[in-house]
Design goal:
mainly alpha
């Protein structure tokens, strides 16, 4: 049963995760304070580096997509794609975003709009609204998907074209990786980043479902009910990951896309359609026009608390998720050219994000326009209820809230099962056929572990602990990815 497991990677990862859980549970109040201190120290000291790396990867993606390497096929000249374009996009979108887009789709633009740290005292509604949407686009658009794209391309190229295992250590060559423990250390960093990145998303999703059910008076909102939700969804994710990639994960991703399209259409046509369209056009143009200044802003001359809690948190989240999403995208991208891969993994999802944020964000800002502070006050009190307070202003609001909860659940399960699959691949022994499913026992262990870690993080400090875990794991992996990009370019040049 355990013969296909890489023992060093698996055991080392389990020991580190168990140690973290033990220390957190030992003193929850002290853990909460420690989480906050670590987040501040890392953000204040290395924020400039995270922002620089995020921009560098976007430039690197643009270069590779139109370089002499663009026609190289992942898997060799004769490789054929395993999945259709629609299924491919559905799976990478569901895995890459998860519950975060529903959690922040309404909340983020409204919170930016109402933030005293972002706007001049006399700023107009239009200026505040436009800046708010620009920042939402920045946090969810090109930069994050560029990070995913580079890591995914590394996994795909080194596995399919160089016949190396699906591991971060496969990206590198040299004295350090010639040593077994050097390779194990690199892979464990990726495993830990994946685990805590996904656990953060699961924790956010559980909070939102709990708040939504409480807002609808279906379930009393409490910490124990949040835990119960995590347990239920973990079990659903376990079933999905046992069914495998082509049955469980693929079908759930398709369902995600259909349900999201339905909800998006209802908000677009049932809301202020003309206002949304005007906002979409203006927001996108303004975002592209101000992209350089927005993406390099470090708040170097101002209080850094806003930057630490938003931009740096997001970029760190993207980096923490990158081994998970990158490997998952690589696994489903066999047979695609480098150009097709990068356009599909960066431009297409970013466009979907712009559409989603543009519709939900502008519809929410419209509610603030006609009824000032109606959303911002509620969201400031409890960010998790933002989507449900927003939907209350639409006809058949209870049905829409129910649909939103179902979508969150499916995203939740998709993140859980995809994360378990990827972590299993990182801790599995090398197989000759890279398209084989990892061992069942690994998928089960990691699916359960994700739920346990999400519960511990919630117990140790709620959303603050979730944010800190992302930053702590995302920062070292961001540095690792920069070296991986250099290794990828060198290998691509050698393959021509």
């Amino acid at each position: 049963m355990f013969k296909n497991i890489a023992p060093r990677r698996f055991i080392f990862s389990i020991i580190l995760i168990a140690g973290f859980i033990g220390l957190t549970l030992y003193n929850l109040s002290e853990a909460d304070r420690l989480f906050a201190d670590i987040q501040k120290q890392l953000s204040d000291g290395l924020g400039w580096l995270i922002i620089l790396l995020a921009n560098g990867f976007l430039v690197f993606v643009i270069y590779l997509a139109f370089s002499k390497h663009k026609k190289i096929k992942l898997g060799g000249p004769d490789a054929k794609p395993e999945f259709s374009n629609i299924n491919w996009i559905a799976m990478l979108f569901s895995a890459g975003l998860g519950v975060g887009l529903l959690f922040y789709g309404v909340a983020e633009p409204v919170l930016h709009f109402s933030s005293d740290a972002l706007h001049e005292t006399e700023a107009s509604f239009s200026d505040k609204a436009n800046l708010s949407m620009n920042l939402a686009y920045l946090h969810w658009g090109f930069h994050g998907w560029a990070i995913y794209g580079i890591v995914g391309l590394c996994f795909a190229f080194f596995t399919y074209n160089k016949n190396l295992p699906f591991r971060v250590s496969s990206f590198f060559s040299g004295p350090f990786t010639q040593n077994i423990w050097g390779r194990v250390s690199l892979d464990v960093i990726a495993i830990i980043a994946t685990i805590f990145g996904i656990a953060t998303s699961l924790g956010l999703g559980a909070n939102q479902i709990n708040s939504g059910l409480g807002y609808m008076e279906i379930l009393e909102e409490s910490f124990m009910s949040t835990i119960g939700i995590v347990v239920v969804i973990t079990l659903m994710g376990l079933i999905s990951v046992v069914l495998g990639l082509k049955v469980g994960i693929k079908r759930l991703s398709q369902l995600n896309i259909i349900l999201c399209a339905i909800l998006l259409s209802i908000i677009f046509f049932g809301g202020p359609t003309s206002y949304i369209l005007d906002g979409l056009v203006q927001n996108l143009g303004s975002y592209l026009q101000n992209l350089l200044s927005l993406s390099t802003n470090t708040n170097g001359y101002l209080d850094s608390s806003w930057q630490n809690g938003w931009t740096l948190y997001y970029y760190s989240w993207w980096f923490a998720w990158s081994p998970f999403v990158g490997l998952f995208i690589a696994r489903i991208s066999y047979g695609r050219s480098i150009q097709e891969f990068l356009i599909g993994a960066v431009l297409v999802p970013s466009s979907i994000v712009f559409l989603w944020m543009g519709v939900f964000g502008n519809a929410a800002l419209y509610q603030e326009f006609i009824d000032p502070n109606s959303l911002s006050t509620a969201i400031s009190n409890d960010i998790a209820v933002s989507l449900f307070v927003f939907l209350e202003n639409f006809p058949a609001s209870q049905l829409l809230m129910g649909l939103a909860i179902v979508i969150i659940l499916t995203f939740f399960v998709t993140s859980s099962d995809s994360g378990a699959l990827v972590t299993s691949m990182l801790t599995a022994a090398k197989k000759e056929n890279t398209k084989d499913e990892p061992p069942m026992i690994l998928r089960v262990i990691w699916a359960i572990s994700l739920g346990v870690i999400a519960i511990v993080l919630l117990a140790g400090g709620g959303i603050g602990a979730l944010q800190t875990s992302v930053i702590v794991t995302g920062v070292p992996f961001a540095i690792l990815v920069s070296f991986a990009a250099r290794s990828l370019l060198r290998s691509l040049n050698q393959s021509l």
